[in-house]
């Protein structure tokens, strides 16, 4: 795919420019001519490309190996992140990292789905696919936050729940459902940011937020485009088409009022500049926290409920159709 | 149909040939192995509620093609004709041995019982109705999961039903969730899993990920009885497994235990 290649090229050029900028700043070497040339070339490439990224290209950006993970972002957003392990029932799930940190002068609870940054890490973190322990650890930390009046900040980045024997044996459906229920009445503000892939129930298990944001090129979907293609057309290679139909981009979901805001990404995506991405996230977090703190807790919970209640689409007919509702007696 | 077979009904579990008439006299269970054939929503209501006691609620909710998904409304229309249902769930008020209850029953013939906006909204309204009228709530789940063609709106129905149940539970309402074959995906991971009491029919398939997806992922033989009701009870997720002929009596018994229980506010 030509565009995909352009994207890689663009990333490479951006990285080159970062190096040049770094050298100029740190070492004082003068590369201003090279920088100018690069900038022109980048602008030339970037404009037409970013304006019309297809949903599938966004999927590729969201899954990009170099995309910042939550643990990359956390040091740029918070101070003293102190990770807490385990669900106190079964084990500790490395696919979700959670703990306490300072956001400015306020302690907050951070819960983050974490993909690996390389193959070895991915095996440890199960490619960011949580097991039930992960959801239960998240809930434990949320209840802890509730007790001490800490705002909860969740980072979503998962292909989805884990389709594994153990995950089913330990009741992942029950764990996810319980998170949805408990988050609906948690007596502290909840802010969720989808930073990469928001895969189905695994994402929603951290997604009942007073504010839900997505990074500009993140995706959020009921099923992965690959999974949808396999189910609909028995052909996973049609994922590109499915990505289009499913309406999974931040822009689509903002329009549907499923999310409360889109956090801009620098350059060709968050992987271009970690610090710029973090800066944008920090701004959104500050604003959201200030807004949510000014709200009475009972009111906050009611608003959370009302917000999600609007996320439905149907038509209501005046007359009752068909007599299907009357049960027929068995033969 | 396998070659050399007639048009008759064969049990999907033991492959025995089942006489159609006898099937309906036997609670739609296989006479050889007691496999519980899925019931339609109509049959479920008729089998559970006192005769002629059912009054529908949340009628007239029509499916919307919110994502402009190709062929979606055609498929809905086909299933409407096939099932004489508007959507994959029926909800209403009825009596069980004189106890008035709010009841919803899903139907897997309609888009595999998948949950889109209308299913989600119907469940939400049933919960709210039970809350407002202070009646117990009983939901019979049967579902392939979230409905793909409504995308993110289907996913959000998991949140909505769970949140509405949150209000109902806080108000002290009684919710009995009955899981029937098959209950998977987003329905299992939302309202179906949140009952005060969770009952399943014998050998019902219950899970989040479907067995085929799991098998493709791990590329191993799945354990015997994996994701069946008995397996789930063994793992600690089901209160009761009750076969179909005993189900009404069991519900009646449970309703009696909770006679004074009323949702408030």
TrEMBL record, chain A:
Domain CoA carboxyltransferase C-terminal: 37-291
InterPro entries, sorted: Acetyl_CoA_COase_a_su, ClpP/crotonase-like_dom_sf, COA_CT_C
This enzyme's EC code(s): 2.1.3.15
Localisation: Cytoplasm
A single BP term in Gene Ontology: fatty acid biosynthetic process
Main location: cytoplasm
GO molecular function, one term: ATP binding
Gene3D superfamilies (alphabetical): 2-enoyl-CoA Hydratase, Chain A, domain 1
Alphabetical keyword list: ATP-binding, Cytoplasm, Fatty acid biosynthesis, Fatty acid metabolism, Ligase, Lipid biosynthesis, Lipid metabolism, Nucleotide-binding, Transferase
Catalytic activity: N(6)-carboxybiotinyl-L-lysyl-[protein] + acetyl-CoA = N(6)-biotinyl-L-lysyl-[protein] + malonyl-CoA
One Pfam assignment: ACCA
Top-level lineage group: Bacteria
Functional pathway: Lipid metabolism; malonyl-CoA biosynthesis; malonyl-CoA from acetyl-CoA: step 1/1
One cellular component term from this protein's GO annotations in UniProt: acetyl-CoA carboxylase complex
HAMAP family the record matches: AcetylCoA_CT_alpha (MF_00823)
Role summary: Component of the acetyl coenzyme A carboxylase (ACC) complex. First, biotin carboxylase catalyzes the carboxylation of biotin on its carrier protein (BCCP) and then the CO(2) group is transferred by the carboxyltransferase to acetyl-CoA to form malonyl-CoA.
Classification via NCBIfam families: accA, AccA_sub, PRK05724.1
UniProt subunit comment: Acetyl-CoA carboxylase is a heterohexamer composed of biotin carboxyl carrier protein (AccB), biotin carboxylase (AccC) and two subunits each of ACCase subunit alpha (AccA) and ACCase subunit beta (AccD).
Family to which the UniProt record says this protein belongs: Belongs to the AccA family.
Name this polypeptide is given: Acetyl-coenzyme A carboxylase carboxyl transferase subunit alpha
TrEMBL record, chain B:
Sample GO molecular function, one term: carboxyl- or carbamoyltransferase activity
Transmembrane stretches, start-end: none
One Pfam family it belongs to: Carboxyl_trans
Cofactor(s) the protein needs: Zn(2+)
Zinc finger map (C4-type): 11-33
Ranges for domain CoA carboxyltransferase N-terminal: 7-265
Cofactor binding, note field: Binds 1 zinc ion per subunit.
Subcellular location(s) of the protein: Cytoplasm
Family annotation (PROSITE patterns): COA_CT_NTER (PS50980)
Known pathway: Lipid metabolism; malonyl-CoA biosynthesis; malonyl-CoA from acetyl-CoA: step 1/1
Keywords: ATP-binding, Cytoplasm, Fatty acid biosynthesis, Fatty acid metabolism, Ligase, Lipid biosynthesis, Lipid metabolism, Metal-binding, Nucleotide-binding, Transferase, Zinc, Zinc-finger
Top-rank taxon: Bacteria
GO cellular component, one term: acetyl-CoA carboxylase complex
Catalyzed reaction equations: N(6)-carboxybiotinyl-L-lysyl-[protein] + acetyl-CoA = N(6)-biotinyl-L-lysyl-[protein] + malonyl-CoA
Subunit structure: Acetyl-CoA carboxylase is a heterohexamer composed of biotin carboxyl carrier protein (AccB), biotin carboxylase (AccC) and two subunits each of ACCase subunit alpha (AccA) and ACCase subunit beta (AccD).
Task performed by this protein: Component of the acetyl coenzyme A carboxylase (ACC) complex. Biotin carboxylase (BC) catalyzes the carboxylation of biotin on its carrier protein (BCCP) and then the CO(2) group is transferred by the transcarboxylase to acetyl-CoA to form malonyl-CoA.
Stored NCBIfam families: accD
Protein name: Acetyl-coenzyme A carboxylase carboxyl transferase subunit beta
Organism: Brevibacillus fulvus
Gene coding for it: accD
């Amino acid at each position: 795919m030509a565009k995909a290649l352009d994207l890689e090229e663009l990333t490479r050029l951006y990285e080159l420019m970062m190096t040049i900028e770094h050298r100029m700043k740190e070492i004082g070497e003068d590369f201003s001519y090279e920088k100018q040339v690069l900038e022109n070339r980048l602008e030339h490439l970037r404009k037409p490309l970013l304006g019309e990224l297809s949903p599938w290209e966004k999927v590729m950006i969201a899954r990009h190996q170099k995309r910042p993970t939550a643990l990359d972002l956390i040091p740029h957003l918070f101070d003293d992140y102190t990770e807490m392990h385990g669900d106190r029932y079964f084990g500790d799930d490395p696919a979700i990292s959670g703990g306490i940190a300072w956001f400015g002068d306020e302690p907050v609870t951070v819960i983050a789905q974490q993909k690996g940054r390389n193959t070895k890490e991915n095996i440890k973190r199960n490619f960011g696919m949580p097991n039930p322990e992960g959801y239960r650890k998240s809930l434990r930390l949320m209840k802890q936050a509730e007790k001490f009046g800490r705002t909860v900040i969740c980072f979503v980045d998962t292909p989805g729940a884990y389709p594994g024997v153990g995950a089913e044996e330990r009741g992942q459906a029950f764990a996810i459902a319980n998170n949805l229920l408990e988050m609906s009445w948690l007596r502290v503000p909840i802010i969720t940011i989808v930073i990469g892939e928001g895969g189905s129930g695994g994402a929603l298990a951290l997604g009942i937020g007073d504010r839900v944001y997505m990074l500009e090129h993140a995706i959020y979907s009921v099923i992965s485009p690959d999974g949808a293609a396999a189910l609909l057309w028995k052909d996973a290679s049609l994922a590109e088409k499915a990505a289009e139909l499913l309406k999974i981009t931040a822009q689509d979901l903002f329009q549907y009022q499923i999310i409360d805001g889109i956090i801009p990404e620098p350059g060709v995506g968050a992987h271009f500049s970690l610090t710029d991405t973090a800066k944008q996230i920090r701004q959104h977090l500050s604003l959201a926290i200030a807004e949510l703190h000014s709200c009475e807790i009972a009111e906050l919970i009611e608003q959370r409920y009302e917000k999600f209640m609007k996320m439905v689409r149907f038509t209501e007919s005046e007359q009752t159709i068909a007599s299907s509702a009357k049960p027929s007696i068995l033969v | 149909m396998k070659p050399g077979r007639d048009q008759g009904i064969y049990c999907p579990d033991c492959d025995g040939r089942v006489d159609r008439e006898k099937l309906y006299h036997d609670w739609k269970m296989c006479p050889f192995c007691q496999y519980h054939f899925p019931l339609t929503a109509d049959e479920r209501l008729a089998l559970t509620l006192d005769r002629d006691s059912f009054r529908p609620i949340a009628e007239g909710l029509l499916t919307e093609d919110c994502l402009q998904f190709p062929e979606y409304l055609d498929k809905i229309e086909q299933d409407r004709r096939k099932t004489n249902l508007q959507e994959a769930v029926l909800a209403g008020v009825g009596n069980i041995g004189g106890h008035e209850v709010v009841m919803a029953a899903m139907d897997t013939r309609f888009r595999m019982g998948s949950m889109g906006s209308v299913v989600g909204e119907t469940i939400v309204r049933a919960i709210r109705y039970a809350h407002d009228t202070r009646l117990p709530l009983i939901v019979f789940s049967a579902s392939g999961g979230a409905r793909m063609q409504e995308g993110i709106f289907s996913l959000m129905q998991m949140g909505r039903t769970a949140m509405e149940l949150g209000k109902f539970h806080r108000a002290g309402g009684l919710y009995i969730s009955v899981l029937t074959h098959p209950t998977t995906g987003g329905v299992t991971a939302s309202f179906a899993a949140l009952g005060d009491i969770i009952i399943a029919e014998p050998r019902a398939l219950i899970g989040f990920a479907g067995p085929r997806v799991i098998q493709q992922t791990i590329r191993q033989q799945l354990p015997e009885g994996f994701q069946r009701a008995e397996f789930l009870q063994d793992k600690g997720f089901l209160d009761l497994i009750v076969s179909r002929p005993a189900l009404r009596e069991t519900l009646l018994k449970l309703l009696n235990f909770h006679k004074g229980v009323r949702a408030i506010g």
